[in-house]
Amino acid sequence: MSEITGVFISTNGNVVKATFDGLKDMQRAVGGLIQPVDLEIAGHQCTLFIDEEGRCIHEDYQIPNQLATDLTIQPIIGDAFLIGGVDNQGRSLSLHPEARDAVLEGTAIFTY
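Above: the chain's sequence. Below: its structure in token form.
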């Protein structure tokens, strides 16, 4: 897998450009097993990755992620990251610049 660019969305509200180099790097970003949530931003397919067990861990560690929750309209716990959709062979793609800029600028319009 080659490097994929997207944005990292932390629980403290920081949203920054990020690069991911493989599954282990993606898991490290969310602190556990990753779970994809597909959505569309600015007309582009995107995948938000969250910690699969974020809502299952001890409640003292459950930190809500407001932006990720707003993007998916479901409660998201912990850090998350957003990349592009997948190609016709199922490989993850980098986040389209228009979608990235919309998220970074806080102007993202998303559909499900």
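The chain has a mean pLDDT of 84.
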